[in-house]
Please model this.
Amino acid sequence: MSYVFQPEALTALPVYGSELQFAVRRVYCVGRNYAAHAREMGSDPERESPFFFCKPGNAVMPAAAGQILTLPYPSQTTNLHHEIELVVAIGKAGADIPAAQAHEHVWGYAIGLDMTRRDLQGQMKAAGKPWEIGKAFDHSAPIATLYPQTQTGWLTSAAMSLQVNGAVRQQSNIDQMSWPVADIIHHLSRYFTLQPGDVIMTGTPEGVGAVVPGDELQASIAGLGEMRVRIS
Ligand code: MN
Model:
């Protein structure tokens, strides 16, 4: 078998305490999964089922421990926003997964940033058009080192924070999710057969805002280390 051109290398996340790498397949994202963030975006959080959008697997920028990622400021926007999110990595395939069995499908967890061209997302939303140009651009998903669930246990509570140039912008806890991880996996797996290598970005809390070239972001989730990203 030979290809017309050399396929690009798989995007893979480093694994904490291991030489192994976690090859990324798809990136599923949950919209408006923290009530206070839904309100700041002008939605009523009480009336929504979880909804999903995707980023390409190769939009992921893996961050090794201690590394400062450099994220190029994307084209066609003047309002690039940060969204800190818990990332859940799938290790076992499944469809129609009951919430009570969701933990069996989770391989591990990481810190992620759902970087967003907020101006374009807003325009698309207002026009009833797809969000891809706002959400799925190159480098739009910095993700830190993956922590195996065998080490962290099943995560239901963990403080999270995002600082920009040392000032706290987002501060919450994953226990504030409207749809917890088990429910996310249940709902998502009704629509897509989840496969090992899929990662889920589980939504962001309130406090999203713009960053500009030169800014340095520091994201942390208790038990999952931290991730640093510089906008260039
Ligand atoms: Mn998000």
Remarks:
- The domain at 12-231 is CATH 3.90.850.10 (Fumarylacetoacetate hydrolase; domain 2).
- The longest helix spans residues 181-191.
- Helices lie at 35-40, 118-127, 132-135, 149-152, 181-191.
- The longest strand covers residues 106-113.
